[in-house]
Amino acid sequence: MANDLVILGSASSSTPAASATALPSHLQGAIGTLVPGASVTFTPGAARIADVTDSPALRAAMSTFAQQHEVDAVLVDNRRRLTDFKLVAMDMDSTLITIECIDEIADYCGLKAEVSAITEAAMRGEIKDFNESLTRRVALLKGLDASALEKVFEERLQLSPGAQTMLRGVQSLGIRTLLVSGGFTFFTERLKTRLNLDVARANTLEIVDGKLTGRVLGEIVNAEVKARTVAEVAAQFGARPDQAIVMGDGSNDLQMMAIAGLSVAFRAKPVVREKASVAFNYAGLDALLSLFRKD
């Protein structure tokens, strides 16, 4: 396999307004040391060294360089193009958006610490049964006024760096979009409308007389359901799962990432970074647009 080594700048240097020399000058000079003698091509917020040979030594050098300079260094198949993909599927909490919605909802009933602890353990893979972890967390919300959901959406929910730029970029290429989440439809449906996404799938919180009952309606969207949804939505748009890009951060994203043609770990837990095709630890989501050659 022929590879390109791509250096992706931090989110602050991969904004839509970044110039072609957005990477700091000292970094531009240092990049050449990764593959001595190779030519480096710079694009907004990124640099590319073409046709490198993968090796343990190169991987080690990339890891050291990335940590030292707080950038992402990834290898990609230089025969692939972004237009080879037909679907971009995204997790919501801590991937497309910066928060864990259930933790913020719990804050309105004074239980954020308790709920967050369960969320973190589940995302690290320490709680193997996602259904159990979600059921436990949602039960703690029983009796909360449903208006808290609107407050979270309006006051606390923020898109991750580069999210809108990434979505505009893939949508302009005719790539379909899927938001598939172990979170809640209250948020996914609003984001679907706001961001012009094609499909959204998540859990439905039961609300009776304006209060949360502490229960989820219907099938829980766990790791297996996420993977099944990616496959089904890909087929809906005439694509195979390996023509999908999947972006996620937690252990419940691993199954859908495993069936994808490209998996992106975004600000992810170690178990997810280890399994993903590429990891964005510093770059924004829009770094996806810089991974592949344009020619």
TrEMBL record:
GO terms for molecular function: L-phosphoserine phosphatase activity; magnesium ion binding. Keywords: Amino-acid biosynthesis, Hydrolase, Magnesium, Metal-binding, Serine biosynthesis. The active site is at residues 91, 93. One of its GO terms (biological process) is L-serine biosynthetic process. It catalyses: O-phospho-D-serine + H2O = D-serine + phosphate; O-phospho-L-serine + H2O = L-serine + phosphate. Its EC number is 3.1.3.3. Its cofactor is Mg(2+). Pathway: Amino-acid biosynthesis; L-serine biosynthesis; L-serine from 3-phospho-D-glycerate: step 3/3. One of its GO terms (cellular component) is cytoplasm. It holds the Pfam family HAD. Belongs to the HAD-like hydrolase superfamily. SerB family. NCBIfam families: HAD-SF-IB, serB. This is Phosphoserine phosphatase. The lineage of its organism: Bacteria, Pseudomonadati, Pseudomonadota, Betaproteobacteria, Burkholderiales.
